[in-house]
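can u do me a favor
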């Protein structure tokens, strides 16, 4: 590295430390001393990770902070602040080896930011809502997508990120399974205990079985995360060539499937079933299109033998007529709200939707709800049709960019990118039954993954590899 590059790196490090200390200490100032101590420890860890250029690990830390600190402990905005610091770090340490690129689709992103301002202001009836929607689902989506595009310099970077994300997901799956098997919530907070005991929706009707929500609190959100994450170790399993790694990825897959069962989330489990179909088409090797259905069949048979009581409870939950009636009622109510407020919605906020959507509530929705249990209807009802259209265009265009990267890949690499593509498709399918793309944690996960697999830097690297592979054949001719 040149002297000027070293100076930029030192400047970036100092800027990183100053910004993180200022912002995180300020956010933890009104909280207990324990949280302040954890914040200082987190700052030191993050600074060390960036100093040794472990950018993929730093991105995983953003997701972990978003889930465990912002969401579970309710501190808010810490993960978004770290994402901004990471982007600044990429800028100040840019080089030939670590290039900087402008935000893809920047015009659409600017339009998304501008159109989201009025619904965000309109819906900010509480500090919680003000700190949730716009900072995470609008601005946070932009930051995480951009961060993902910068991470994916080549396929090795994508693989490292997927491995780390699969490892983090396996830890969440382990936490979920412990809760499902023992009823014990490891690292539970008093707030979580009170909410868990007070909310009867976390218990299967007619049974004493509690659904496992882990750090997501709500089992449906936990199930959505586990279903989305499942396809990353699947892609890694199909892509790797060593037996030891295959065994490791199979263990992660088993842990995720077991944890998914303990969430008893019908929507998440169905999204996995629907996601397997495109994954079989996207996997690079023909033998896995035969092997994976056989493995899925074997897993189902083992589940019927080992977890028959859990499957019986899941079937009971799925056949509950009130669940389907309430969900359909929530969708109908959202359509009524969109019809009444087509341009601006009722405001990006849970409290705003509770109050302003209630006059349009249909009889099938027999209880007031703070969101319509459908991310696409939620964008339309809370922010208006223009914001919904821009969101869909951003999502579809990014998926098209990701598909172009997949098409440039060889058979070996396609399995890896196919797992990432299927993860996004699974999140999108599940978002028809729950607020997947509009929940802060899940939204940040989705946009980060989408940025990684659709990165222009990755496309440039894949194109260079394809040309390199073609040259020997050309020379022989």
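np, heres the sequence
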């Amino acid at each position: 590295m040149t002297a000027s590059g070293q100076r930029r790196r030192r400047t970036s490090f100092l800027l990183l430390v100053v910004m993180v200390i200022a912002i995180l200490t300020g956010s933890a100032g009104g909280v207990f001393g324990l949280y302040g101590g954890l914040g200082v420890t987190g700052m030191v860890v993050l600074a060390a990770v960036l100093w040794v250029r472990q950018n993929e690990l730093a991105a995983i830390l953003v997701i972990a902070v978003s889930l465990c600190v912002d969401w579970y402990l309710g501190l808010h905005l810490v993960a978004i602040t770290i994402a901004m610091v990471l982007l600044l770090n990429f800028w100040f340490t840019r080089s030939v080896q670590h290039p900087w690129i402008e935000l893809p689709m920047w015009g659409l992103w600017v339009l998304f930011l501008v159109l989201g301002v009025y619904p965000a202001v309109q819906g900010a009836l509480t500090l919680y809502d003000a700190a949730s929607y716009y900072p995470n689902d609008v601005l946070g989506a932009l930051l995480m997508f951009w961060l993902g595009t910068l991470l994916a310099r080549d396929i090795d970077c994508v693989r490292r990120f997927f491995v780390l994300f699969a490892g983090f997901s396996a830890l969440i799956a382990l936490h979920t399974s412990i809760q499902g098997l023992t009823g014990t919530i490891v690292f539970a907070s008093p707030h979580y205990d009170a909410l868990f005991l007070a909310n009867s929706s976390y218990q299967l009707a007619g049974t004493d079985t509690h659904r496992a929500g882990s750090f997501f609190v709500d089992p449906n959100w936990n199930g959505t995360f586990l279903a989305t994450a499942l396809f990353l170790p699947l892609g890694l399993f199909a892509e790797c060539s060593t037996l030891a790694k295959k065994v490791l990825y199979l263990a992660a897959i088993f842990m995720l499937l077991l944890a998914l069962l303990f969430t008893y989330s019908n929507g998440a489990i169905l999204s996995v079933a629907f996601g397997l179909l495109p994954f079989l088409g996207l996997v690079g090797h023909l033998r896995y299109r035969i092997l994976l259905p056989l493995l899925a069949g074997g897993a189902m048979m083992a589940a019927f033998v080992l977890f028959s009581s859990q499957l019986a409870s899941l079937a009971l939950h799925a056949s509950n007529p009130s669940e389907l009636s309430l969900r359909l009622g929530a969708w109908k109510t959202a359509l009524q709200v969109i019809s009444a407020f087509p341009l601006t919605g009722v405001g990006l906020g849970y409290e705003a939707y509770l109050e302003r959507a209630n006059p349009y509530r249909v009889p099938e929705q027999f209880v007031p709800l703070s969101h319509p249990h459908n991310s696409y209807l939620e964008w339309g009802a809370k922010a208006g049709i223009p914001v919904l259209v821009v969101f869909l265009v951003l999502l579809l265009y990014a998926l098209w960019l990701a598909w172009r990267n997949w098409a440039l890949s060889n058979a070996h690499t396609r399995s890896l990118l196919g797992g990432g593509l299927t993860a996004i498709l699974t999140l999108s399918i599940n978002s028809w039954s729950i607020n997947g793309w509009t929940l802060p944690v899940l939204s940040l996960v989705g946009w980060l993954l989408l940025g990684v697999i659709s990165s222009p830097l990755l496309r440039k690297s894949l194109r260079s590899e394809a040309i390199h592979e073609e040259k020997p054949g050309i020379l022989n001719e």
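Residues 21-32, 473-477 have pLDDT under 50 and may be disordered. hope that helps!!
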